[in-house]
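Usage example:
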Amino acid sequence: MAARISVPATAKKGDTVEIRIAIQHPMETGFRFDVNGRAIPKNVINRVTCRFGGEEIFRAELGSGIAANPFLDFFAAVEESGTFEFEWVDDAGVRGAETAKIVVS
Amino acid sequence: MKRRGFLGIAGGAVALVLGRKAAAQVRIENGMESVVRDLTAGATVREGRVTLVVARLADNGYAVPLRVSVQSPMTQTERVKSITLLSPRNPRPLMATFHFGEDAPRAEVATRVRLNGTQRVMALAALSDGSFWSASAQVEVTESACLDAS
Amino acid sequence: MGGRRWRAGRRDREDRRQLKRLLALAFLAGTALAADRPTPLKSGVEFTGADARALQADEFANPGMLWVARGEKLWSEPAGVSGKSCADCHGDAVKSMKGVAARAVNLDGRIENCRTEQQQARAFEPESQGLLSLSAYVAFQSRGMPISIPGTADVQASVQRGREIYHRRMGQLNLSCSQCHDDHWGRKLAAETVSQGHPNGFPAYRLSWESVGSLARRIRACYSGIRAEMPEYGSPDLQDLQAYLAWRAQGLAMESPGVRR
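Running the assembly step on the lines above writes:
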């Protein structure tokens, strides 16, 4: 799954930083039919988590009501340099992961 | 103080108190009561503190950007635990739930949702003190101008 | 209710032939006859809603950028019998592909050509992830550059044929492209505003497609909109229309990946 992450490269201790993630995924609702009239099975990214320093700072539980190629924008407070770890999984069990480093001074 | 003025103020004060209590329980869209009850375990849902920003007229129902935020000091003792997006007209009313970590500085998320027609989208916030707050926004969603079989 | 008059169908055949000759001459001379193009020239982004416009302008939130990112990866992947990647011949796309999409009348065709002839790999299917990703990546290298197509004889001939198709009434609704996009741009069609029908945003992320799609797909969608049989991908009609649209949009800046409804 192609994904793009936006995290500032640097920040000051105590800053609030904006984090954005965009994942390429059809978020198949399960309500569509293919050209042969067969229902296309539901398959959405159902969970996206973000960890920093091993601790979960944000978790999104998503349903088919979230648009295709899901986009999330949220905030984190940074006290020290580290790595944001992103993980997501869809209904078919396919997992994705990305990381982004931040230097905090 | 003029009589009318005094009555006006007194009446106003009474209305304010009554108003506070009367408006405490937010109006839940038809069909959503059970979904909301499941999320809140029957607790009162209050209107306020939550801001939902979304276009009044969606460009296209397949991708409607929205931003939701909750007024909160976001301290260890007083913070927002989660925000849930609900739709009264989508086939699945529960759109997403966003959980905030203990150190989250802001209870704010932006995303893009699918809206299956004109409706009042609802955001429900669960606070650490067990209270629930919500806001809703009416979004007009129109059909595409042209048929597209591509 | 002011606005444009309904002009279509007013010219008689002789006038049209005269006009065609005049236009051909004008084209040969390298000038664009003002009457054939909308004025002022406005990109499709000006006719979408605020959300779509904001999404296009935000390089991170623009969903089309996911395809550009994918294309960037594909650019360096070896393919086919040749075992070569695009990069092996074309180097850094940021340099080598700059302006290419702004000058191309059939970008997808050229990519397919490279794929089958140079890389000796199986052709991409139209609207496949691979083709969309590469075309999005290549087109992105022309972002901000004005469309300007070659004045060669074969391109000119294609533009002429495309012009004819553009002005031809078609489909069950018996409408020509020109009737909406020349005569009624800026007016409402249901809740949407009719654009001038320019290709400068393509390949574009169309919200209703939930995917990036090519100009060819968008033209096919228009055909189905007027209830006409959609031309096949790669068909001469589609290619000629693309050439005409490019000619007609000359001067407009490329916006790919555009975001449209």
